[in-house]
């Protein structure tokens, strides 16, 4: 069968797990499947498209789809360019134009489950022999109180501190001894800025990333963004941990002058500047390595380093994943096909050492690909060790530069994003971060008080 790259999702074998590459492709024809699920053929429409420049992802996914379709006659995989959009999802769901498999950030599953917008696929998942070996930690955010599972994650991650090893060396710092607490981060950032003229540390601040990264920083200080009261969630950030976190940013920005000149950046902006050697440290995951190399042309990959997220009494980091779920409107037959696809595409490569090695070997043929970038294990530590050993001959990243993250992250509590309307909460918190970073006289207490009032109105409406 001839393959069109406009009907493909790109999965890359990295460190024995799958990482998703996303972009768009226009002109996708409507699905020809029998939406009633009673026809003999099922065309399964799945969200997510590979980047046109990411040839390795396209080629690997084409092989993946061919293999799946050969093993599952009557099911055809058709990708779409659409991304998760909370503003349009409900309308698409009502109009039955939503895909059969949707990709959502880890902020969304609990809300989708509560509103019955997605359906459980537990029965189909349990048909897999290794279902009981899933890491409970990665399934818990995708489950309801009765234990029904509504999705399969892809490349679970935990936030850390990304740093430029070359700038560390130029500043007289040891790149093999990255900071472990925020006092050290502040001192390191000041030294990098003074010695190199580059931004020592950067905090994202727009497109909801300001509130997102403030959440990470709050967790490291022992705080929470939302707390439960009388069975409902209210804002919890107008407290000492978040205030201390913002005071830290304010001091680094205005007292130390160690955060550079551009304070209104999102993740792409920051990674692009990092790839160009302009940033010493920022909060991110190991997956930013691929973004820096593949999208923004990081030339000297040996400059990339990452350590566990520094702490200030919280002993915690923010975890997450991309999650694939099945809308409630999808027919039973298509839901069963979707579960088969998710197990084949997401779970099996992260469990089976032979599959992981095969895909890593294929991916490594592309000199621009990144094989070996670590993520959190989907299954047991023992199984992950088998995966790591299987792909070791094909790893083409400086794995030792990820070791501080690998060593330190298991010692931290992995905390999820705020449980109710996290993205809306981040929208409220972005201006707080922006004010602190752009206004020397910003009143942190007043900013948080206003944000708390706005957040509580929003949360009350969300929980009616």
UniProtKB/TrEMBL annotation:
Keywords tagged on the record: Signal, Transport
Keyword Metal-binding: no
Any Pfam family the entry gives: SBP_bac_1
GO biological process: one example: transmembrane transport
InterPro entries referenced in this protein's UniProt entry, alphabetically: Bact_solute-bd_prot1, SBP, SBP_1_CS
Phylogenetic lineage: Bacteria, Bacillati, Actinomycetota, Actinomycetes, Propionibacteriales
Signal peptide: 1-29
SUPFAM superfamilies, alphabetized: Periplasmic binding protein-like II
UniProt name for this protein: ABC-type glycerol-3-phosphate transport system substrate-binding protein
Organism in which the protein naturally occurs: Kribbella amoyensis
Family in the record: Belongs to the bacterial solute-binding protein 1 family.
């Amino acid at each position: 069968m001839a393959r069109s790259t406009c009907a493909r999702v790109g999965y890359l074998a990295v460190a024995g797990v799958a990482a998703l590459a996303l972009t768009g492709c226009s002109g996708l024809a409507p699905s020809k499947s029998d939406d009633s699920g009673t026809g003999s053929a099922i065309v399964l429409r799945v969200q997510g498209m590979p980047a046109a420049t990411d040839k390795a992802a396209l080629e690997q996914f084409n092989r993946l789809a061919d293999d799946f379709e050969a093993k599952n006659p009557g099911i055809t995989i058709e990708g779409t360019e659409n991304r998760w959009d909370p503003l349009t999802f409900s309308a698409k769901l009502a109009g039955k134009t939503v895909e059969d498999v949707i990709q959502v950030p880890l902020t969304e599953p609990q809300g989708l489950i509560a509103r019955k917008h997605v359906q459980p696929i537990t029965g189909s998942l349990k048909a897999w022999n290794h279902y009981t070996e899933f890491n409970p930690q990665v399934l818990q955010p995708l489950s309801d109180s009765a234990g029904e599972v509504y999705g399969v994650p892809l490349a679970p991650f935990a936030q850390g501190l990304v740093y430029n090893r070359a700038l560390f060396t130029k500043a007289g710092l040891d790149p093999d001894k990255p900071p472990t607490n925020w006092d050290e981060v502040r001192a390191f950032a000041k030294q990098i800025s003074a010695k190199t003229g580059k931004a020592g540390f950067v905090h994202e601040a727009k497109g909801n990333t300001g509130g997102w990264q403030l959440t990470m920083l709050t967790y490291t200080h022992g705080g929470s963004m939302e707390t439960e009261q009388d069975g409902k969630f209210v804002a919890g950030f107008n407290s000492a941990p978040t205030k201390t976190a913002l005071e830290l940013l304010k001091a680094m920005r205005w007292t130390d002058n160690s955060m550079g000149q551009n304070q209104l950046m999102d993740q792409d902006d920051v990674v692009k500047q990092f790839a160009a050697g302009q940033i010493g440290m920022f909060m991110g995951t190991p997956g930013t390595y691929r973004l820096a190399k593949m999208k923004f042309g990081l030339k000297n990959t040996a400059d990339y380093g990452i350590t566990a997220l520094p702490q200030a009494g919280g002993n915690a980091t923010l975890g997450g994943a991309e999650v694939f779920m099945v809308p409630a409107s999808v027919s039973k037959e298509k839901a069963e096909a979707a579960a088969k696809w998710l197990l084949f595409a997401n779970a099996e490569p992260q469990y089976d050492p032979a599959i992981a090695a095969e895909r890593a070997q294929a991916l490594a043929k592309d000199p621009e690909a990144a094989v070996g970038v670590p993520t959190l294990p989907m299954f047991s530590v023992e199984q992950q060790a088998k995966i790591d050993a299987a792909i070791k001959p094909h790893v083409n990243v400086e794995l030792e530069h990820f070791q501080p993250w690998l060593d330190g992250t298991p010692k931290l509590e992995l905390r999820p994003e705020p449980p109710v309307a996290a993205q809306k909460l981040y929208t409220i918190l972005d201006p707080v971060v922006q004010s602190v970073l752009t206004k020397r006289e910003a009143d942190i207490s007043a900013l948080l008080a206003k944000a708390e009032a706005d957040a509580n109105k929003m949360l009350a409406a969300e929980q009616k």
